[in-house]
Amino acid sequence: MKGKIILLSSIVLATVGISAYAGPEQDRVAFQKFFHDKFPRTPKADFINGIYSIDAASREQWLEIEEFPPYEIAIEEGEELFNTSFKNGKSYADCFENDGKNSRKNYPYFDPKRAEVVTLELAINDCRVANGEEPLKYAKGKLAAISAYLSFVSRGERINVVIPDNAGALQAYENGKEFYYRKRGQLNFSCFDCHGAASGQRVRADRLSPALGHVSHFPVYRSKWGGMGTLHRRFKGCNEQVRAKGLNPQSQAYKELEYFLSYMSNGLEFNGPGARK
Amino acid sequence: MNAIKLSKYFVRGLVTFALGLCTASMAADQADFDALWNEANEKRKAAAAINYEWRDTGEFLETAKKEQAAGNHTVALALIAKALEQGSDALAQAEREKDLWQARVPK
Fold first, then answer.
1. Which residues does chain B have within 8 Å of residue A243's beta carbon, measured at their own beta carbons?
2. Which residues of B touch A239 (CB under 8 A)?
3. Residue among A151, A157, A268 nearest A219 (CA)
4. Testing the interface with B: which of A181, A188, A191, A192 to mutate, by most B Cβ within 10 A?
5. In CATH terms, are A22-67+163-276 and A72-152 the same topology?
6. Domain map of chain A by residue range?
7. Does domain A22-67+163-276 have CATH number 1.10.760.10?
8. Residue B43 falls inside a structural domain
9. What is the DSSP pairing of strand A274-276 with strand A220-222?
């Protein structure tokens, strides 16, 4: 009798636990619904255009910019770098299948052997190091150019981050999620405060972009930067805007943040590189 | 004559005493500064270890060192006070957010 009670209690507790725990897929559905409800006039597939998906006036200007996109030079530079052989005679094509075409969709992913999230930018530097080359700096410059090229030749592919049945992967996802929703910095803002709850509202002359689709168009040419920058450069900038100390690009926290944020945009198309203010 | 000599000794003694006081005071200022600076830096490092350091805390501490070296003890202490406050606030923020963040997740 006592055994049956314990068994029954365990089943009830397990059921309650399962229903209370929001797994990644439940998170994604709720996350996307939040933005679909908040911006009902924006077609679901259009969130890849960031602020331009919800602000008609900015969109007009952006479409003009897209006629002669400022990231074009980076794509050309990235293509040249991608096709330049390393000193050992090999090249990036030996690391990225299909000459890099459509490779963007393979990142980020969780590597159980390394027990870490691998991003596209990390994979580019891994390729260099494996072939005896020095790693490139992660925020901008040549690495952003190669990333821009690989993103360009992957346009139209869908974001499809997989969280494997692995405790480390789930932990990385949860860490990224927690980072995203935690307030930080002297101004006491979370990422979601600006790009979720307050998305669409004005901060001085600009509107805050919705988080859904944020990862689809990086790296970007940003007018403020006067050049290209990676997603992690933007993460750092965002953190510092709320007066938190920005972290290093490709730090564990930023890789896990990218993992979470990319999963939230699963199903949307990659359309990078992009142009932003 | 003796009176003049005596007054000379007295003035010399007074100057030596004043210089001694001044040196002791500077040493005390430096000791105060070092103790407070280390305390503020420990808080900054504790916040940094959990990715909660605020943007300007490190700069306040670096500037405080420069001001102290330039003899601006009061300015240096004011900067350390700001750094200390930021370090404490950042740690309190991290503690507060341990649970609060979950309320922001869309359901």
1. 54-56
2. 55
3. A151
4. A181
5. yes
6. 22-67+163-276, 72-152
7. yes
8. yes
9. parallel
* Residue B16 belongs to some domain of the structure: no
10 Å Cβ neighbour count for B99? 8
Q: Which CATH superfamily is domain A72-152 in?
A: Cytochrome c-like domain (1.10.760.10)
From A34, A184, A192, residue closest to B52, measured CB to CB? A184
Domain membership flag for residue B19: no
pTM recorded for the entire structure: 0.89
Strand ranges in A49-204 using DSSP code E only, listed in sequence order: 109-111, 116-118, 202-203
Report the SS3 class of residue A86. coil
Measuring CA to CA, which residue among A84, A108, A109, A102 is closest to residue A94? A84
Band (B20; pLDDT cuts 50, 70, 90):
low
Its domain, for residue B84, covers 26-98
ipTM: 0.88
**Least confident among A54-63, A171-180, A215-224, B22-31:** B22-31
* Per-chain mean pLDDT for chain A: 93
CB proximity B2 to A under 8 Å: no
